[in-house]
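Practice problem: predict the structure.
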Amino acid sequence: MNQTFSYSELPAICVELMPAVMAHRLVLFSGPMGAGKTTVIAALAHALGCTDWVRSPSYTWVNQYRIHSPHYTGPLYHLDLYRLDTVSSVESVVHHVDLARYIEDADALCFIEWGEQLPPVLHTRPPLCIHMDYGQSEDERVVWTTNGTSRHPSMHA
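Answer:
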């Protein structure tokens, strides 16, 4: 999938993404600050039947939501790895927050913002990667998916 969309088209984008999301269950989101990672995660969660307010877990590392719907029943873990920027903080968070517990739960859905920050040791199952970037207008975004951790050539460093 490689598509440009406006936020009004987000429900349709979620429907298009859903089969791949459900097949992988581990989804890594990447893109520059403000590209809409949290917005897309919230839209996917609501499309799955989540009724909670979905917000970025930037300072808590992980938010957990329960989903009960015809599509899926179980936990949705929403992680934000933005602050993993040094080896010492990676080791500390991996140990103290026990990221592996969320990532290795094959029965759960796990959505990870700043997925490119995920330490290789935690790549225990193949993820779906959803990359986002700014479009040409203020409310336009570009989204593309890949299997694995490859980055799109136009991705910001």
